């Protein structure tokens, strides 16, 4: 399809994409590299028991910041907020690399999260500004390639830094954060030099501070209990305080958004758009089921297969390959055919099938089988994630693309947080019984009894925890599951019940994830398919502004769009429709970038 008049060339788009992908790579890599290194970091800072707070601080600030970036960028422009996000992330990285305690690290990770919330959503939104939806699909696959690459490189790099005593005279684990600095600086330079967007027309507005504050009140306690619930107890006093504060915050948020109208952080009228509403539900459910699977697969490889984090990351390369393949297939076919609904439908089906197959894993499952099943799961992810965002971006007016994009990622992240919390809670609440049942089944076997009678096994201190447990010694089984590292040192015959029990609990989680994905299949089937626009987000906004100016001038040729009106069926508003062939072209030039818009002849 030829490019629209004045649209950026393919080469210009690739250059800009390079800068955007650097920012996305920072956020995606950070999550995997820190997860691999957190144990070493906790030991060095003498606060391993506080590691959950480091994760929670980052999660809370990044989740809350995501919709804020979307709304503010719709009002004031994308570039300054994207640069601000990178700078905040780099400041947080620098501070984290200098932390002297886990409390300091948690606070600095919160600063990092403030930047990370904009790196993802704004990159996808900027692409929407530059490229029409139909062409956009083939570029968005590159963003998923960033996630795939980071999921492989993260454990490898994290393991290297965590295992190094010092690098250039600095503790190895500190480079987990400091490595972001040169990468981020390159991204800042590239974006500053190559990203030039036309200025937005000034419109009367007010910032929805009440909605932002209510969102913080609602989300912080809910995210906090999602992360800390297993440690505190889901029915503890602290948990009920979080539930109550979260419920009050959500009610206040809905009231604030209703009062704010079109100025709302998340305008409620968007939910009258079926594509947006169903997309929000689908993203939440997919995030819930997806992260349930992604959180348990590394545990299976590290516990049931005895791998270290680096080996587990490399073993999941087929998952990465599936994600990249699915995103490329969906992007290319969407660009050629203009159809996209089939891909989320097929993708969620493959996600459900992949989770169902993965729920059959056991200690003796071959790595080839694990690779095939995880590749199928990844293929489903690749076919699903970007087409859903594309559908939502295409269904809303261009001036609200930032809100729509950030909301999609926000709902997916909230679903992922809930999924991780719920599924890990299920895993660790059932694993004790599963291991107990496995001991009852395996203990009478000849191999197990031979191990108990083997003097070398009895004399090995590594086997003492299991021997004490079997003999009923006081404290023999206490806190055994809080640190699973002892399993790898056990005699294989004594370790067998632990491997079977963990595998069975992980299988239960993946089976539930497959059931959750069935809901996602239904939602994607119900998703309306709106024809893809042939103009970019910038062109759409300029077109709407030109029509509004013509109406204000008294031509009466075009009516402006009510900012509070969104079609119920997901159909495109009038200001997004293709102009008549007789229309004349008006060009807006800013910093060397030309964006074409078309208005009716006077």
Structural class determined from secondary elements: mainly alpha
Spatial gap, N to C terminus: 30 Å
Structural Rg = 26 Å
* Share of helical residues: over 70%
Describe it.
The protein is 71% helix and 3% strand. It has 602 residues and is mainly alpha-helical. The two termini are 30 Å apart. A hairpin with a 2-residue loop joins strand 1 and strand 2 (170-171). A two-stranded antiparallel ribbon has the order 1-2. The chain is globular, with a radius of gyration of 26 Å. The protein has helices spanning 10-44, 51-76, 79-96, 102-130, 133-163, 175-178, 180-194, 209-232, 237-260, 274-304, 309-315, 317-337, 342-358, 367-395, 401-442, 446-453, 455-459, 464-471, 492-526, 537-552; strands at 166-167, 170-171, 584-590, 593-599. The model is unreliable at 1-5, 474-478 and 556-602 (pLDDT under 50). Helix 13 runs antiparallel to helix 19.
Key phrases:
about 70% helix; 20 helices; two-stranded antiparallel sheet; disordered N terminus; about 600 residues; globular; mainly alpha; single chain; two-stranded antiparallel ribbon
In short:
This protein is 71% helix and 3% strand. With 602 residues, the protein is mostly helical.
Itemize the secondary structure elements and their pairings.
Blueprint: H1 10-44, H2 51-76, H3 79-96, H4 102-130, H5 133-163, E1 166-167, E2 170-171, H6 175-178, H7 180-194, H8 209-232, H9 237-260, H10 274-304, H11 309-315, H12 317-337, H13 342-358, H14 367-395, H15 401-442, H16 446-453, H17 455-459, H18 464-471, H19 492-526, H20 537-552, E3 584-590, E4 593-599
Antiparallel strand pairs: 1-2, 3-4
Helix pairs in contact: 1-4, 1-5, 1-7, 2-3, 2-4, 2-8, 2-15, 3-4, 3-7, 4-15, 5-11, 5-12, 5-14, 8-9, 8-15, 10-14, 10-15, 10-19, 12-14, 13-14, 13-19, 14-15, 15-19
């Amino acid at each position: 399809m030829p490019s629209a008049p004045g649209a950026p060339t393919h080469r210009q788009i690739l250059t800009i994409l390079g800068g955007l992908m650097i920012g996305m790579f920072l956020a995606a890599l950070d999550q995997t590299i820190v997860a691999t290194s957190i144990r070493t970091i906790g030991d060095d800072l003498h606060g391993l028991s506080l590691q959950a707070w480091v994760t929670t601080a980052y999660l809370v600030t990044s989740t809350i910041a995501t919709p804020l970036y979307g709304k503010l960028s719709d009002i004031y422009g994308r570039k300054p907020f994207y640069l601000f996000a990178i700078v905040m992330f780099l400041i947080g990285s620098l501070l984290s690399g200098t932390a002297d305690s886990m409390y300091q690290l948690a606070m600095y990770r919160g600063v990092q999260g403030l930047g990370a919330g904009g790196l993802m959503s704004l990159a996808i939104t900027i692409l929407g500004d530059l490229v029409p939806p139909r062409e956009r699909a083939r570029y968005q696959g590159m963003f998923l390639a960033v996630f795939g690459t980071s999921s492989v490189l993260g454990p490898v790099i994290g393991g290297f830094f965590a295992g190094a005593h010092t690098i250039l005279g600095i503790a190895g684990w500190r480079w987990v954060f400091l490595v972001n600095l040169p990468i981020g600086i390159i991204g800042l330079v590239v974006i500053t030099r190559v990203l030039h967007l036309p200025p937005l027309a000034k419109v009367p507005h007010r910032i929805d501070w009440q909605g932002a504050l209510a969102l913080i009140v609602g989300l912080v306690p809910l995210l906090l209990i999602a992360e800390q619930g297993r440690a505190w107890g889901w029915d503890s006093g602290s948990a009920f305080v979080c539930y109550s504060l979260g419920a009050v915050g959500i009610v206040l948020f809905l009231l604030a958004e209703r009062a704010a109208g079109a100025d709302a952080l998340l305008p409620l009228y968007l939910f009258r758009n079926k594509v947006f509403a169903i997309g929000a539900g689908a993203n939440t459910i997919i995030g819930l089921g997806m992260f349930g699977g992604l959180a348990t697969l590394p545990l299976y490889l590290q516990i049931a297969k005895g791998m270290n984090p680096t080996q587990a990351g490399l073993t999941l390369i087929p998952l990465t390959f599936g994600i990249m393949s699915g995103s490329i297939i969906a992007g290319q076919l969407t660009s050629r055919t203009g159809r996209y609904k089939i891909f989320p439908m097929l993708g969620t089906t493959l996600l459900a099938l992949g989770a169902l197959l993965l729920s059959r894993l056991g200690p003796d499952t071959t790595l080839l089988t694990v690779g095939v099943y995880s590749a199928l799961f990844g293929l489903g992810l690749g076919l699903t994630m970007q087409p859903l965002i594309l559908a939502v971006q295409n269904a809303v007016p261009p001036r609200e693309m930032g809100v729509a994009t950030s909301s999609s990622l926000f709902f997916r992240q909230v679903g992922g947080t809930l999924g991780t919390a719920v599924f890990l809670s299920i895993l660790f609440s059932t694993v004790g019984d599963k291991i107990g049942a496995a001991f009852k089944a395996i203990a009478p076997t000849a191999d197990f009894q031979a191990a108990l009678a083997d003097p070398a096994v009895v004399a090995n201190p590594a086997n003492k925890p299991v021997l004490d447990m079997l003999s009923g010694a006081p404290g023999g089984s206490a806190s055994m599951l809080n640190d699973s590292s002892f399993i790898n040192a056990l005699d294989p015959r004594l370790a067998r019940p632990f491997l079977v029990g963990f595998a069975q609990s992980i299988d239960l989680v993946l089976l539930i994830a497959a059931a959750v994905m069935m809901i996602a299949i239904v939602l994607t089937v119900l998703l309306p398919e709106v024809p893809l626009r042939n103009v970019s987000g910038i062109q759409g906004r300029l077109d709407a502004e030109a029509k509004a100016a013509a109406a204000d001038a008294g031509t009466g040729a075009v009516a402006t769009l009510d900012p509070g009106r969104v079609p119920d069926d997901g159909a495109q508003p009038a200001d997004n429709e293709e102009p008549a062939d007789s229309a004349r072209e008006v060009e807006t030039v800013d910093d060397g970038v030309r964006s074409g818009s078309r208005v009716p002849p006077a």
